[in-house]
Amino acid sequence: MDNSLDHNPVMLNEMLKYLAPQDGEIFLDTTFGAGGYSKAILDSCNCNIVSIDKDPTVALYVEKLSKEYNNRFKFIQSDFAQIPEKCGIDIKFDGIVMDLGVSSMQLDEGTRGFSFAKDGPLDMRMSNTGFSAADFINSEAEEEIANVIYRYGDETFSRRIAKRIVEERKIEPIISTLRLANIVCSSIFGKRGKIHPATKTFQAIRIHVNDELGQIERFLSNVRRILAPNGRLVIVTFHSLEDSIIKKFFQENSVKIVARSKYSKEKQIIEEWQWLKILTKKAVIPSRDEIKLNPRSRSAKLRASIRLGDCYV
């Protein structure tokens, strides 16, 4: 348990730089995981934080932070897409942080079925409830399986993989991660690259089973309601489709800087839909040193913005 809290969350220093916690402020961590971001924010100043996670296995980490930070830390087990309605949160946050990556404890635990590195049940459900990866693989039509693998995994051999899956499940249901990984590898034949041949397929199925992109979009539709004026929004993504959603959201809701003379006394007119100012001109990526220490961070991208206050400079 302690090892998970001691691990280094991706781009921790960069996250704190853009979130800029101050005494007396209140923050929302939408993806608690092992508590790395929440703990760092609480340690940075005398602030408060509400942390969200739908994974029931985070209970041990929640207990540890609850004891250490007492009334400064509050945890709600929920899907972050359901904020604020289902959580009953009636406050404005001074900062919101999202780490959209699958946590190490999920990847490293074979029984969760997220990874082909360890054999286990083909599950992949972050909440441990609902439609599993095995349900999807063994019940959906070949075309739907191929579309999911291509759409969310950008897998060139998606149709070949889907066809082989359907053939194999007729012989015996596919219920283990290792069997699915072997099916994918055999479908691609001798093709090998920098990543394991089953990586894209597993990623695609996980995204689909957990409706990850849909959850992100539903959450973003609520951000304006729960982010205070001058509140900071920091989001770390690990997939190009996630990053595309975040980038588009920032662009569509941000102020467009208009070039004008520094002597001009006229204030820039801000449209009602322009309620954000982007803090990161382009996505921030991990340093080479961090990638060496944590190879899983190599695909991470951080984007940040701030909600405009009563006046804009």
For the structure shown, list the relevant keywords.
313 residues, alpha/beta, Rossmann fold, DNA polymerase, domain 1, 2 domains, 7-stranded mixed beta sheet
Structural commentary:
The relative contact order is 0.13. The protein has a 7-stranded mixed beta sheet, with helices on both faces. Residues 1-6 have low confidence and may be disordered. The chain is built from 13 helices and 7 strands. The protein is α/β, with parallel strands linked by helices and 313 residues long. It has helices spanning 2-6, 12-19, 36-44, 59-69, 104-108, 133-139, 142-153, 158-171, 177-188, 199-209, 212-226, 240-253, 288-293; strands at residues 26-29, 48-53, 73-77, 93-99, 227-237, 276-278, 301-307. Helix 7 packs across helix 8 (158-171) and helix 8 (158-171) crosses helix 9. It starts with a helix and ends in a 6-residue tail after the last strand. The chain is globular, with a radius of gyration of 21 Å. It has 2 domains: 2-105 and 212-307, 3-Layer(aba) Sandwich (Rossmann fold), CATH 3.40.50.150; 128-209, Putative methyltransferase TM0872, insert domain (DNA polymerase, domain 1), CATH 1.10.150.170. The longest helix is centred in the last third of the chain and has 15 residues, at 212-226.
Short summary:
By secondary structure, the protein is an alpha/beta fold.
